[in-house]
Design goal:
Number of helices: 14
Keywords: Oxidoreductase
Protein name: Aldehyde dehydrogenase family protein
Number of domains: 2
Low-confidence stretches: none
Pfam family, one: Aldedh
Number of strands: 22
Strand content: 15-25%
CATH architecture of the largest domain: 3-Layer(aba) Sandwich
Shape: globular
Bound molecules: nicotinamide-adenine-dinucleotide
Helix content: 25-40%
InterPro entries: Ald_DH/histidinol_DH, Ald_DH_C, Ald_DH_CS_CYS, Ald_DH_CS_GLU, Ald_DH_N, Aldehyde_DH_dom
Mean pLDDT: 98
Distance between the termini: 60 Å
GO molecular function, one term: oxidoreductase activity, acting on the aldehyde or oxo group of donors, NAD or NADP as acceptor
Length: about 475
């Protein structure tokens, strides 16, 4: 039984959840405690009590802890990657890559703990000095989704600790294993009791407790738009700080002058890898007339070579969908897209078993052509290996289609034209723009986030994370 970490103690929950391997649903990874609201309350109380001392801890103390956590994650990349692939279903190389990213994030924020910065200015009044400093916000509630079970927790936990905040962390129900492993590392890192608390449990119970408790000063949330709206409403009602990272319907524009191989590789990678379960996945391919048919044909040829199988098996390109409910959603959207006039050019087959006969949530990657911008497949996030193609007349039309979405997380363009690449970088209404690269797959030391319905509040990651995890103080001194 994997327990919750509250005030430095491992505590049983009020209930138990079973962590199942989506590549082989007979494989029980482990049992995990599920906290109730009373236990979340204990965690909030512990974090509140720990805050005064931790917020005044030295930069050296925070550096040492974060650096050591990063080192342990990196040293255990193979084992933690195996656990991640087993519980979430991304392939082993992808999972190990995510673990490495988490380790690097802790190392990055270890360094940030040493350089919080600040400004010293003369006042406009004689004899007065002004100092601008950053202070910890307080107790932060961190709520994460299932699709990056260790990287997203890392990119919230590491900056929160680096700048002196205390944490109550609620991971997604589907992937408690990576969250628990990370918490176990943190529990041995030298953090004082109560600074970091793990509270696994239901969103409607533990999550809502974090949203509504006045001792939680700020909530960082990554997940769906529907839940994000609840987070926003609850936080606004009590004037708590919050930040939301939500869904995407990310376009990739392919222009006539694109290098076909580069375009296909970028589209296949960001459309289908990690089973399409990435908020930055390219789910809309917007392709100009002159290359459209060649591009679709090359996509289908490439897709035929992709092996859908057990996430941890060597040679697997695409693992299973995360669970039955997400698989059902993916299949529903395949039906909706075809009912609205889209053509299934390739894939979309439900495989009940993998190559070894194990039962799992397998779906072959699907490409739907002949779609138009108003179709639901082009407006709503599917969050699976399902990609649509929209035909565009020219660059200007493609840009307009790319921006015609309620989302604005990432956008890509495949082109050999400097003029169009430069124009697209400036005029794409997305937080992150990629030229001749997949829309998914970003660096760990630079800001991450979007616009419009994809994000709300300050950016995560890199030095920009300070905007959320610190509050600015302006102090005046008469000399
Ligand atoms: P989700 O919204 O269902 O759940 C996210 C988290 O919120 C989970 O921990 C869940 O338990 C919790 N939660 C659920 N109801 C709650 C409530 N009422 N109050 C408080 N917490 C609650 O999302 P998911 O299915 O886990 O993740 C998939 C979504 O995440 C997709 O939409 C994807 O695009 C998005 N995502 C976004 C980013 C990004 O950075 N923009 C990154 C990864 C995933």
């Amino acid at each position: 039984m994997h327990k919750n970490l509250i005030n430095g103690q491992w505590l049983d929950g009020a209930a138990v959840s079973r962590n199942i391997n989506p590549s082989d649903t007979r494989d029980l990874i482990g049992e995990y405690a599920q906290a109730d609201a009373a236990q979340a309350d204990l965690a909030i109380a512990a974090a509140t009590a720990a805050f005064p001392a931790w917020s005044l801890s030295t930069p050296q103390q925070r550096f040492d802890i974060l650096d050591a956590v990063g080192s342990e994650i990196l040293a255990r990349r193979a084992e933690l990657g195996d656990l991640l692939a087993r519980e979430e279903g991304k392939t082993l190389p992808e999972a190990i890559g995510e673990v490495v990213r988490a380790g690097n994030i802790f190392k990055f924020f270890a360094g940030e703990a040493l350089r919080p910065g600040g400004e010293s200015l003369p006042s406009v009044r004689p004899g007065v000095g002004v100092e601008i400093t950053r202070e910890a916000v307080g107790v932060v509630g961190l709520i994460t989704p299932w699709n990056f079970p260790i990287a997203i927790p890392a990119w919230k936990i590491a900056p929160a600790l680096a700048w002196g905040n205390c944490i109550v962390f609620k991971p997604a129900d589907l992937v408690p294993g990576s969250a628990w492993a990370l918490a176990e590392i943190l529990s041995r890192s030298g953090l004082p009791a109560g600074v970091f608390n793990l509270v696994m449990g239901r969103g409607s119970v533990v999550g809502e407790k974090l949203l509504n408790d006045p001792r939680i000063a700020a909530v960082s949330f990554t997940g769906s738009v529907a839940t994000g709206q609840k987070v926003a409403a609850a936080c606004v009602a009590r004037m708590a700080k919050f930040q939301l990272e939500m869904g995407g319907k990310n376009p990739m524009v392919v222009l006539d002058d694109a290098d076909l191989g580069v375009a296909v590789n970028a589209a296949v990678n960001s459309g289908f890898f990690s089973t399409g379960q990435r908020c930055t996945a390219s789910s809309r391919l917007i392709v100009t007339d002159g290359i459209h048919d060649r591009f679709v044909a090359a996509m289908v040829e490439k897709m035929k070579t992709l092996k859908v199988d057990d996430a941890r098996k060597a040679g697997t390109d695409i693992g299973p969908v995360v669970d039955a409910s997400q698989l059902g959603q993916d299949i529903d959207y395949l039906g909706i897209a075809q009912a609205e006039g889209g053509r299934l050019a390739h894939g979309g087959a439900r495989l009940e078993h993998n190559a070894d006969g194990a039962p799992g949530f397998y779906l072959t990657p699907a490409l739907i052509t002949d779609t138009t911008p108003e179709m639901r497949i082009n407006r709503e996030e599917v969050f699976g290996p399902v990609v649509s193609v929209i035909r565009a007349r020219d660059y200007e039309h493609a840009l307009a289609l790319a921006n015609d979405t309620p989302f604005g997380l990432a956008a890509g363009i495949a082109t050999t034209s400097l003029k169009h690449a430069t124009h697209f970088k400036r005029h794409s209404q997305a937080g992150m723009v990629m030229v001749n690269l997949p829309t998914a797959g970003v660096d760990y030391h630079v800001p991450f986030g979007g616009r419009k319905g994809s994000s709300y509040g300050p950016r995560e990651q890199g030095r920009y994370a300070a905007e959320f995890y610190t509050t600015v103080k302006t102090a005046y001194t008469q000399a």
